[in-house]
Amino acid sequence: MKADDLVLFCDVVELGSFSRAAEVHNLTNSVVSKRIGKLEQTLDVQLLYRSTRKLRMSEAGQKLLEHAQRVKQATSGAEEAVRDLGQTVTGQIKMSVPTISGELVLAEAVADFCRLHPGLHVDMSLENRFVDLFDEGMDLVIRTGYLEDSSMIARHLIDAQWIVCASPLYLSSKSRPRTPQQLTEHNCLLYTYQATGSNEWAFKDHNSPYAVVVNGNFSTNNAGVLKRAAIAGHGIVYIPRCLVYNELQRGELVDLFPTEVAKKLGIYAAYPYTKQPLKKITLLIEHIRLAYQKIAHTF
């Protein structure tokens, strides 16, 4: 069977006549009849019962139609995708991204994407709260964590490993914790980017997860502020490694438990579910993914 014959069969059924399908495909009635006949011969079944007034499908025809419709949809989608490559990327994109990703990767990556496509304007908001795409009219969001909303299409970009770290200044004034459980004896600065759980730090022991409940005298929902407080020696922090990678390399911060921290969150690009996503969205997502991959070693 050929895909174009299945598409033709689908159109004959949906349009209700050979002549209408012939017009759509710019063919003669006899050619349409021969191709449907050849399809029946190939399958060794009768697909259509023909009369002077109407067509009626056989049981085999009804079964084939289900598959033919999927072939038609896939063919149409492929044609649109290829045709779309020649179109100019213009218009607007409204997107929301987490503060860390925005400052670390996306500010430069998205601005560069706009440079590559002068007819495009991107409005990017940096915020850690959960953004509803539909209620707030977002075209695209970058999210960290687990995605359960079936009304969205999500593409995985990278995984972010978290670490526990402190400055040499803090460690020189306190005894360095040798086990995660000893963190309860220290001043742990809390990152309150989520509503709950900021003081429950996740660890693993031979791949068995457990949590340590910590306390401290300072908390903030801004990761950059938390990093500066840690560098200044005010306490221990639980934070994405990518945010402090350079400070770790310079020795301004020390990774206390390199193999025991269990927290690793996926970073995703998500957009509303559509049969055929807009080219500007898919191109921007790929541009962002490549930007993350360039600094994947920091994650």
TrEMBL record:
InterPro entries: LysR-type_TF_proteobact-type, LysR_HTH_N, LysR_subst-bd, WH-like_DNA-bd_sf, WH_DNA-bd_sf. It comes from the Bacteria. The keyword Transcription applies. Residues 1-58 form the HTH lysR-type domain. It holds the Pfam family LysR_substrate. The keyword DNA-binding applies. PANTHER family: HTH-TYPE TRANSCRIPTIONAL ACTIVATOR TTDR-RELATED, HTH-TYPE TRANSCRIPTIONAL REGULATOR. This is LysR family transcriptional regulator. The lineage of its organism: Bacteria, Pseudomonadati, Pseudomonadota, Gammaproteobacteria, Vibrionales.
